[in-house]
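User: quick one
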Amino acid sequence: MEKIQVKVCLGTTCFVMGSSNLQELMELVPAKYGDKVEVSGSPCLSKCNIDWEYSRAPYVTVNNEVVFEATVEKVMREIEKQLSYAK
Amino acid sequence: MQNKNNQATHLKKEILIRTIKAFLTDDFPAKARLIPYDMRPKGCAVPFRCCVYKERAILKERTIAVLGFSIEEYDERISLSSYAQKALKRSKPETLPLTVLETACKGCVPSRIHVTDLCQGCVARPCTTSCNFGAIDIINGKALIDSEKCKNCQKCISACPYSAITKVVVPCENACPVGAIAKNEKGHAKIDFEKCISCGKCVSICPFGAVHVKSQIIDILKHIKENKKVIALVAPAIVGQLPYPIGKIKSAIMKCGFCDVMEVAHGADITTKHEAEDFKQRMRRGDKFMTTSCCAAYNELVDKHIEDMKPFRSDSHTPLYYTAEIAKKKCSDCITVFISPCVAKKTEGMKNPNVDYVLSFEELGALLVAKKIEVNNCPDVPFEVESSKQGRNFPLTGGVAKAVEVATNNDIVCRNVLVDGLNIQSIRELKKYAKNKNCEQGNLVEIMSCEGGCTGGNACLNSYKTASKQITEYASNGKCVNDIEIE
Ligand code: SF4
Ligand code: SF4
Ligand code: FES
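Assistant: Done. Structure below.
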């Protein structure tokens, strides 16, 4: 099975709007899912520069899914969802 | 430590960004007027309140606070565009740093002891016997508290085996360490500025985001637009607020239109040297202890509430004081803007003629977003004046005391006492030291209003853990404070 790729946006907009909380994912995800999921910080994912879209920052992508106004909980839910599809 | 990023802070930041964006267009008043409508357009979902009209009314009040006005004096009939014009015209920002949004303040129920429906109406009824004031009766098989008789002693809470009794608190009242915020006759929170020490604890705690900082961002942007020499003085806690090296943050700030960025960590070195001399003198003349003097909220606390502490507070000025002085000496017509981790420094800035404006980390962040500046793509430029390892460590708990200790060069033994956060308990301790003219635990008392020091400040962007890691790393590359030259 391909690993699920989680990218936490650490670009300026996302960071100002709250991705500091999401840094927790860097420890939480490997602890919980081992090598099934890979998580990394990313420069601007280019979601924020469309008109008012910054207001939905911070962004995280889980494979091709975009999680907006991301929280640790929302991202974990998305990971669970994709893992259950893969089964 | 409270998490700084939640829905209420997200909303406040969004308003800041929208207001700045409106300023950057060629029709600020018209664009400002539309902010509540842009955020809650016709037919949109209503995320927080009863209806879209109430949400817009609150967003309007939030925008007025960002424009720098008090909601206490706000006239509903005046439009946002008139407020925007007024902000453009004023020559001085308003003095009090905070305002409470009446419409957003939910008017939480007054603090009291409350029986929940977990009450089983049991046979033993330990609550009634625990109460020394006869305030509890069992009515219809349930405990009932007579609020006239209740003295809030909370004995019944521990007596109930079902944990059926709880204390309902008003978050802001409960968080304020000096009893400066309470509900007025209309049931809305009101700040008593005679007592308020600007610690900002009410701002962070209010779950409705009703306590706002009055921003000076428009005043600053106006000067930048007029091509004035606007200099940013960055608090040492700025290191680690964004996940990029400080040199990149520096050039990002210049890109916003500031003509120079100075590190207040250098001012911290001057504070350290003065404080070390001060400490030695005091110990030699037989004083039992000395406190630091760099936290603005602590200084307000001493000035307003602990008269007896004045003789024990170091006479040294704050790092901001020295840095602003250097900036004005270098260029007398410059405009100085302190970039700050907290609300308290806004109050300090307003009292110091060398500090023209104060911008918080949150407000700076909003400015970067509004201007679409990607900090990571900015060049990494070092500061002109080098600051010391100890100065760079000022924003972490213990950092100030440690710096003073290093600068005393073992002439006198320092026994450091760290007051990590002002609250009712720590203030009680401080009052005790002042009254007894003695602090048994040590002789050098460092006081920070925020838990963790300035890195835990109420306007910080990053989490304490990751920010402090970056500060420690940056500090480790600095020289020793004893090797730093000052004028
Ligand atoms: S800023 Fe601090 S002192 Fe002032 S009202 Fe709020 S909690 Fe109280
Ligand atoms: S500890 Fe620092 S951030 Fe907190 S109130 Fe004092 S000066 Fe401001
Ligand atoms: S900063 Fe996150 S999408 Fe641009």
